[in-house]
Specification:
- With 338 residues, this protein is α/β, with parallel strands linked by helices.
- The chain contains eleven helices and twelve strands.
- It has one domain: TIM Barrel (Alpha-Beta Barrel), CATH 3.20.20.
- Strands 1-4-5-8-9-10-11-12 form an eight-stranded parallel beta barrel, surrounded by nine helices. A two-stranded antiparallel ribbon has the order 6-7.
- The chain is globular.
- The protein starts with 20 loop residues before the first helix and ends with a helix.
- The structure holds ligand PBG.
- The site of ligand PBG has 11 residues, from helix 6.
- Ligand PBG binds next to helix 6.
Length: 338
């Protein structure tokens, strides 16, 4: 009687295949590349500032000088892309620091470009870190007298922000606001301003998620009233993600992103399979924090769990992985190669 091999080789054979390390590595279908990792940073005004983010061990709000030091350390491990979040010293209703020529993100991009001309600099394009109310767009009163985010009014501000980032030298702008039509508005204004080489990575399928909790502490961007459910996606929905991605591609996105990562691997897989488009995934603050917290308690093997989690996102279809653990992953990959 024939037995079915349970191993990597789906052949009918009368014996079990012993998986030796050499066979395992030869037949591996997916691997992580250092080049596909993107490390996010939070940048603030001042000098010699390194304010730890409590809920994200190893992550700090950094002044520009410290950002340069951290970037240099990351680049040495093999990280070649970074994603910047600016934390301005003053916030207002219209997020004016988001598109100020000398805003915190713009200054940080210029400093990084000068010191590290070869790395890829991505910037988060959103208003929530810059508005006094903490919403991702501008706020208007509707006919019932309720404060609501005005989608169409917000587009102009988002496009202005993206152009000012490109003007400072950003290679990739990443709108995370989830306003409808923002990719088109940003593409149009970038092209008009002569930045037709600037890449748009849109947070296309961005779910309204409790996993963003620690980020809102890091970026000081928690909404002062209401929540983001009016513009971010409902976590129960799948088809909506595909429609959002289709719209962003249609509007001119170069890379589409699914976010969060680990809790939405099915969405990531479907997006990659459906569109065959450059696809990014964001392993967000809460996902990072959970692994760190369990590791601090000694309940899990941090390095192995980090590697397995990142590999699972690559396996599900991610070309690009944005992760607070990007440097650690590079370190692990460097070690394993020896
Ligand atoms: C800004 C933005 C958020 C994240 C990235 N860009 C937070 C949010 O939408 O509330 C979350 C990233 C993370 O949790 O690591 N809109």
């Amino acid at each position: 009687m024939k037995s079915v091999s349970s191993g990597m080789f789906p052949f009918y054979r009368p014996r079990r295949l012993r998986r030796t390390p050499a066979l395992i590595s030869t037949f591996k279908q997916t691997s992580l590349r250092k080049e596909q990792l993107v490390l996010p940073f939070f940048v603030t005004e001042g000098t010699q500032k390194r304010t730890p983010v409590n809920s994200m061990p190893g992550v700090h709000q950094l002044s520009i000088d410290e950002l340069l030091t951290e970037t240099s350390a990351a680049v040495k491990t093999g990280v070649q892309s970074i994603l910047l979040f600016g934390i301005p010293s003053k916030k207002d209703e219209l997020a004016s620091e988001a598109y100020a020529a000398n805003g915190i993100t713009q200054k940080a991009v210029r400093a990084l470009k000068k010191e590290f001309p070869d790395i890829i600099i991505m910037t988060d394009v959103c208003l929530c870190e810059y508005t006094s109310h903490g919403h991702c767009g501008v706020i208007k009163k509707d006919k019932q007298g309720q404060f609501v985010v005005d989608n169409d009014e917000s587009l102009e501000f988002l496009a202005k922000t993206a152009v000012s980032h490109a003007d400072a030298g950003a290679d990739v702008v990443a709108p995370s606001d989830m306003m409808d039509g923002r990719v088109k508005a940003i593409r149009t204004e970038l092209d008009k301003a002569g930045f037709n080489q600037t890449i748009i990575m849109s947070y296309a399928a961005k779910y309204a998620s409790a996993f963003y909790g620690p980020f809102r502490e890091a970026a000081e961007s928690a909404p002062k009233f209401g929540n983001r459910r009016a513009y971010q996606m409902e976590s129960a929905n799948t088809d909506e993600a595909l429609r959002e991605v289709a719209m962003d591609i249609e509007e001119g996105a170069d890379i589409v992103m699914v976010k969060p990562g680990l809790a939405y691997l099915d969405i990531l897989h479907q997006v990659k399979r459906t569109f065959r488009y450059p696809t990014a995934v964001y392993m967000v603050s809460g996902e990072y924090a959970m692994i760190k917290a369990a590791a601090e308690k000694g309940w899990i093997n941090e390095e192995q769990i980090m590697m397995e989690s990142h590999l699972s996102m690559a396996r599900a279809g991610a070309d690009i992985i944005i992760s607070y653990a990007a440097k650690e992953i590079c370190n692990s990959l460097n070690k394993n190669m020896q």
